[in-house]
Amino acid sequence: MLPQSLVKEALGIALSTGADYAEVFAEHTNQKAIQMVSTKVDKIEDAVIAGVGIRVFQGTRCVSGSTSSLERGAILACARRVADALGTGSAAIANVVLRERRFGDIHPVKIVPVSVENAYKVDFLKEACQTAKDYHQDISQVTGSFLDVDHNILVANSEGLFAEDRQIRTRIAVSAIASKNGENQTGSCSPGARVGMELFELFPPKEVGLEAARQAITMINAGYIDAGVMPVAIENAFGGVIFHEACGHALEASCVALGQSVFAGKLGQQIANEKVNAIDDGSIPNAWGSINIDDEGTPGRKNVLIENGILKSYMVDKLNGRRMGMAPTGNSRRQSYAYEPTSRMTNTFIAAGNDEDKDIIASIENGLYAKKMGGGSVNPLTGQFNFSVAEGYIIKNGEIKEAVRGASLIGKGSDILMNIDMVGKNLERGQGMCGASSGSIPTDVGQPLIRVSSITVGGR
Amino acid sequence: MNYQEFKQAVIAAAAEKEVKDYELYYSESAETQTEIFKTEVKGFATGSNLGVCLKCLVNGKMGYASTEHLSEEEAVSLVERALENAKSIESDEQAFIHTKGDTYAVIEKEEVKLPTAAEVIDFALDLQKQIYATDNRVVDGTQAYAGFVESKTALYNSNGLDLEDSAAFSFTYGMAVVAEGEEMYDGMEVSSGKFESFDIEKIAKEAVKDAVDTIGAESVPSGKYPVVFSNKVMASMLSTYSSVFSAEAAQKGLSLLKGKEGEKIAADIVTLTDDPMRADALVKATFDDEGVATYKKNVIEGGQFVTLLHNLKTAAVAGVKTTGNGHKASYASNVGIRPYSFYINPVKGTLDDLMAEAGNGIYVTSVEGMHAGANPITGDFSLAASGFCITDGKKGKPVKSITVSGNFFTLLKEIASVGEDLKFNPFALGSSRCGSPSVLIKEMTIAGK
After folding, report:
1. Which residues of chain B neighbour A259 with C-beta distances below 8 Å?
2. Do A456 and B448 lie within an 8 Å CB cutoff?
3. Each residue's pLDDT tens digit, B171-210
4. Distance (Å, rounded) from C-alpha B337 to C-alpha B340?
């Protein structure tokens, strides 16, 4: 993407006012999103994102800059701007020795999306939307999208690293709306992976459309749940969003290093029920949240966060690692060159346990079965969270009964971790886009069916 | 290659490919920001970003392509990509490129004096110091930020439109963390606009107050209560649901307001206005992202639904004139719809008056989880909230860990009173922002203990 000599020159300038570390991140990305309304292509967004982000550290102080250009003049000017903002000293221009490193690619891609014409992608998307539309007469509208991203990065730093990576990912999403008696309800399905056009083999478009429509129809016929405190069984895959939001964010070094996490200073302590094992693994082949190297050039890897309820590790980037005296864990990520990278999740999930699904449901006398979770958010400082339940059912006397809408789960991350007292065997992952200070990045959430012994359910 | 050179290269490439109808949209922004942690500069960042989006009209269908990489080759590729995309569009609606001839409002631009990097850093350091000095319960984790933004957009098309606009402003915020016993509480205060107008003492005081006020908060029993939404909370509800007023959402069957023009959709007391050039807005828009002249209008008047917000395409489908609300979410986006300064008009009464009217209920000052717990298609919401009890008409003890739920369309009808304290969401730094006075809602469902 950029010649080594130019990168070396930029690093030298960046280091020239007293920094002890400098980093150049360059990017060239092709990104296309085809959007369908009903069964017709309605919009296409087709973007080339290109630019450079430069950071320097002096101890735990960081200065960064970015420019939307891959041209020599702009890159060197950006390096100069960053150096000038760090200090006024005029240290000699450092001679950085770069060594190219190749970390390989554990995410093979069969068909590169950018080489495929629109019509081919449209056909698959149309099949998904048509299936959803035909599912039931109460389906009043269907929207769909197909996204493909070809993200090429270069990371180099004053420690001598020079590495490049190509990250290709695709995602199909269908949202169905059911209407009845002047009311709307929605259902959605949006699988994605670090793969090319073979996504449609992994997730047949028909099944994606069916799932979205089934959910919308279920919910339009559902009543509202009464609010209260109750036990909840949360289904696998996207159900893991609860761990992601309520605990995962508080285990990111960006939060821990500043003392803004309830889990700061608790390594080695019991923070969860002993049934809970939690993992962040950026090295799962072809998984949506996977990486070869993170955006600081550290290889992705499997990190055990919680083992039998004991806190084992945080997710650490270089800068916050300096503040915490810890090594980076392959979790430093950024949406693009325009964002500063920081510690983020990759594929984060609660590992499989030993309980049978049927025993989990049977153990609940009066409660909620959250089959599909919606999104959620959390205040990392207080740990307070709120998740919507996209598809929920009443559990009565150990049996799943009627569907209910409008449910949300409210609580505190540290409490809920202690309250996960049954963990099933069938681990699945689900895909999401996670937003934080370093932008929006692809992450997987995941878990088997779990039971939370007590949680506040908002209803109406 | 700079934008002017790139623009000429695109014009040449379009001529080469015999593309007759097209429009170029250019956006450029430079942002500087610093962040203080403990007593030191934790971070300092400067970014200068730009992007160009081309749209081509082929047989009534619009194809878009964008780039940040300005070169000869990219200019040719941009035209080719936009053309392929135009040919793939299947929706029946006709798309348009605007023609010159509109009369644009002339706003007298105030000279904005932006601070230097050193001034920004000194200010943020002082703010941080002030937050710590405000209350001895303030602990590390507290952060102060300050920065400034300069932006420029330009629109050029084959129908002779050639428009340009720019904006510049500063911003600052303090995030206070206070500890009491084992628990930590956070509070925030934001200011934006002219750098010289920022009041360090006031920002620090409000941020700390925001945190301290919540100390000792507890949940309340689940049930139905009269609820006062603070101006900030109501503004953020309006922002989450602003898409229901979009004609695009309505025409696609994604808004329950479809075909409801002329009907009563809110309490008599509610008038909702969209104003592109409100005097107190940081960024004023005299033209929208399609080059159409903007104007002020009521969307709800005395409870009656007057109009959806339109762009050129939705207006043609509905057989009306565009309301000048064409909007690109980023330079790379297709044109959609959004409001400008979008607000419920103040009526009368202070917050205290609203609480007196409520009698016994809940005063909600903060809601979280908007993106997940609120659905514009159904109108349903279920949001984690905190605030205060209203006891015998007065603000009582703090409340947390509750969920307030309902439906936005029902809420509009259930508004009993609208106060006089109109406030806009301070985090909305662009030309689109929502505002509201505090409102009293007859009854809402609260989930607590």
Report:
1. 139-141
2. yes
3. 999 999 999 988 888 899 999 999 999 999 999 999 999 9
4. 10
